[in-house]
Amino acid sequence: MAEDELGKTLPFEAEQYIPFSLDEVNLDFQILGPCEDKENKMNVMLVAAKKAMINDYVSVLQNAGLKAVIIDIDVFALENMFTANYSPEENTTVALVDMGASVTNINLIKNGVSQFTRDIFMGGNHITEEIQKQLSINYEDAEALKCGEQITGINQDLLQDIIERASSTITSEIQRSLDFYISSAYGEISQVYLSGGGSKTRGFKEIFAKRVNAPLEYINPFHAITYDETMFDAEYIKDISPFSAIGVGLALRSMGD
Ligand SMILES: Nc1ncnc2c1ncn2[C@@H]1O[C@H](COP(=O)(O)OP(=O)(O)OP(=O)(O)O)[C@@H](O)[C@H]1O
Ligand SMILES: [Mg+2]
After folding, report:
1. How large is the average pLDDT for residues 82-103?
2. Rounded to whole angstroms, how far apart are CA atoms 203 and 209?
3. Domains in the chain: boundaries
């Protein structure tokens, strides 16, 4: 089926995959290529987003005096950022894991095509909440402790223990998704790239690295992006790198691309 023809028939096909009325969602699609195992069939990536959610974001932008021209989702922005910066070997699967405040986005990519995506509704906030609960302190103090600030009277060993246990809960959840992919006969993961503010939590990377059966490193969203070093301090860029993965991916989009 040609792309324009698919555009017309897709809403009807899509109905069975979307748990909402079609009037409530915006739909878009991309043809990924022919099916390897079925003749005359093709793989299509279908994306649906609830209009109510999109409108919320658009109105935030409007209130800030901005106009949205492109809307994308985290996992795809992550993928665009990766593609712009890295060239993985053919036939290897790379896992992108971005741990934010309340969501962790996962995208597994092989030969430039996304194979599996998942959003886990857990992130850095979970660690803060555990610190708050177990040390009986307020949220702001818990957040400050998580980010490495010192507060007098806090038992550092206990704090580290809470952070490690909360991090383990999150990494187990991530690992479950990676295991699902591996066991679904898609094969091994050759590299894991980590990003998101939550991944800056002390010891998180090490805990994750112990669990995951592949080399793990922080992604550099500015790896192939040149910038004026007289305007941006290299240390600052390094510091904001974990937060910037999805933002860089969004910024790479342009009208009509
Ligand atoms: N130095 C630090 N150590 C630990 N955690 C940190 C640090 N700096 C920021 N964070 C955490 O990073 C998280 C925010 O990261 P990020 O900006 O990637 O999230 P977000 O994209 O806004 O959230 P979400 O993806 O859930 O919508 C917060 O949970 C914050 O506490
Ligand atoms: Mg995020």
Report:
1. 96
2. 10
3. 1-68, 70-251
For residue range 228-243, list pLDDT tens digits in order.
989 999 999 999 998 9
* Whole-prediction pTM: 0.91
Q: Does domain 70-251 have CATH number 3.30.300.30?
A: no
Specify the pLDDT at position 35.
Answer: 82
Distance 124 CA to ligand 1 centre (A): 6
**CATH annotation of 1-68:** 3.30.1490.300
- The mean predicted confidence, pLDDT, of the chain is 93
Instruction: Report CA(38)–ligand 2 centroid distance (Å).
Output: 36
Taking CA atoms, 180 is separated from 176, 184, 186, 205, in Å, by 6, 6, 9, 21
Listed residues: CB within 5 A of ion ligand 2: 100
| Nearest listed ligand to the Cα of residue 244 | 1
CA proximity to 246, closest of 145, 103, 113: 103
Ligand having the closest approach to the CA of 144:
1
Which phi and psi angles does 98 have, rounded to 5°?
A: -115, 110
Distance 36 CA to ligand 2 centre (A): 33
